[in-house]
Specification:
single chain, 93 residues, mainly alpha, 3 helices
């Protein structure tokens, strides 16, 4: 069940990326009708909303499985990892 939820999140994320690409292409062509661009934008926003809902559902389910304390610990470790990857790599070549 856990991996199925992870897979669903991944699929929704890919749909968002594909929607962004299509929207960029539509906006890049002057001959595109405003209605087509608006419809694609609405589909993209719907995909983003679905992704946010899936992420929330995934996090809630993960908390049910591993518990609040372990989830908090994972969040702390994740934040440390994000901060360390954002720092420039020092050293000489």
């Amino acid at each position: 069940m856990f991996f199925k939820e992870w897979e669903t999140d991944s699929v929704v994320l890919r749909l968002c990326k594909g929607g962004e690409f299509l929207l960029d292409n539509l906006l890049g062509h002057k001959s595109m009708l405003d209605d087509e661009v608006r419809k694609q934008f609405e589909r993209l926003e719907e995909a983003r909303t679905n992704l946010a809902n899936e992420r929330l559902r995934f996090t809630v389910r993960l908390r049910e499985i591993i518990g609040d304390a372990r989830l908090e610990q994972l969040n702390i470790e994740y934040e440390k990892l994000r901060q360390s990857s954002a720092e420039p790599i020092s050293g000489s070549f």
